[in-house]
């Protein structure tokens, strides 16, 4: 009985009531670049999960900037993206969705890529919803840096119906 | 174990439970966005069906926007708030989550405008644990006709952390207003900067989201990082609060490169934040970033904005 009560005390006292802190981003709510807005390279289909994807007839590279608007409580170590990238269609082999975790120096404005995650490292072949993560180690120093995420969606052929759902940093 | 020790143990246990519940639900937590922070879908941005003035969106034909829920200090989500003007469903918003397992989406709650005149509509939803491990979240907003006016929205839940967290964003993460998009005058870099494209002149205007509570009071600084080579061109940022009920706006602080050094080197200029705490129960907060020049020989470039100590 004594051990049971002690266990309850320890369990209740140490149990977390807060969720793990995660910075979430979605393709549909980051900021497309001037080029992508002006030339309307993207589509967000409200009838299909609101995913961020290519205008059907276009190829090239689309980019998005996603803020990390409030500082995290500790150094993040994992960057994950959720996407569809058909790497099995003709001419699709080298196409990729890549997200960089970037820091900008508050002293010089210079940027450094802290971590990068790419669809090319996914074992899933063909067009299927999947995710890929990368882990990294870098001291999170908001006094010296401003952090953000930068997305690249590159395709050579419209046969690849690339889709970016979003991702997370934690 | 004797009765006295048993009773003491039970009391201690109950005290810990009570403390943890109280600390977890003692305050609301908000994740908010003014309308101008939201991303237009491809139809709105391509055809130019919308306009943004002072952070408020109006449309000429049905348009859809997406608003970010980047970081929440929330235990349980239990309500939505929409600030809008328009009859029922002229402005409507959905809080949507998608599964990280298969990408499938689920509407957690909907909220709609309910009459002309600006109103802050509070709508309860079926309480659900905020679970960023399993789901990702966003808002989808539909404005169905020109009578609908969209001011802002938020999701509300029990707070797991009421402390303000320092704010920072690079310039390119802010949303350009439609005149800036249509003019083709701005240029975004992979380094997060925004500047003028080619020989374009005029003003670039962007809206930057402050989704959750940032530190204010005079010991915090509102700062803009920039490069500029002229005292005529400028990079200006205004910290603004918008009342959630009436949509009225108040400028809280402004920083302008014209009060700093303009030698084309990387610089920053700052001002103390106001002597008032952010009240997320009453106001939406956002930043308007403006970059202006009258000649292509001027090279203003915005890098980033911060609110911190």
Which key terms come to mind for this protein?
A: mainly beta; 6-stranded antiparallel beta sheet; 2 helices; B: 309 residues; mainly beta; 3 helices; 11% helix; 51% strand
Number of helices of chain A: 2
Largest sheet of chain B: 6 strands, antiparallel
The radius of gyration over CA of chain B amounts to: 22 Å
The overall average pLDDT of chain A, rounded, is 88
Structural class of chain B: mainly beta
The low-confidence parts of chain A are 6-18
Main interface by residue count:
A-B, 68 and 83 residues
**Overall geometric form of chain A:** globular
Summarize the structure.
The complex is a heterodimer of chains A (170) and B (309). In chain A, 11% of the residues lie in helices and 41% in strands.
Structure explained in plain terms:
The complex is a heterodimer of chains A (170) and B (309). Chain A has 170 residues and is mainly beta. Chain A has helices spanning 2-14, 34-38; strands at residues 23-26, 31-32, 42-44, 52-54, 60-67, 78-84, 96-105, 111-118, 130-135, 145-155, 163-169. Chain A has 2 helices and 11 strands; from the N terminus they run H-E-E-H-E-E-E-E-E-E-E-E-E. In chain A, the strands form 2 sheets. In chain A, strands 1, 3, 4, 6, 9 and 11 form a 6-stranded antiparallel beta sheet that branches. A 5-stranded antiparallel beta sheet of chain A has the order 2-5-10-7-8. In chain A, a hairpin with a 7-residue loop joins strand 3 (42-44) and strand 4 (52-54). Mean pLDDT of chain A is 88; it is low at 6-18. Chain B has 309 residues and is mainly beta. Chain B has helices spanning 3-25, 42-47, 178-183, and strands at 28-34, 39-40, 50-53, 56-59, 63-68, 74-86, 91-99, 105-112, 115-129, 135-143, 149-159, 167-170, 175-176, 186-188, 194-196, 202-209, 221-227, 234-243, 249-256, 267-272, 283-293, 301-308. In chain B, strands 1, 3, 4, 6, 9 and 11 form a 6-stranded antiparallel beta sheet that branches. In chain B, strands 12, 14, 15, 17, 20 and 22 form a 6-stranded antiparallel beta sheet that branches. A 5-stranded antiparallel beta sheet of chain B has the order 2-5-10-7-8. Chain B starts with a helix and ends with a strand. Classes of the chains: A mainly beta (170), B mainly beta (309). At the A-B interface, helix 1, strand 1, strand 2, helix 2 and strand 3 of A face helix 1, helix 2, strand 5, strand 10 and strand 12 of B.
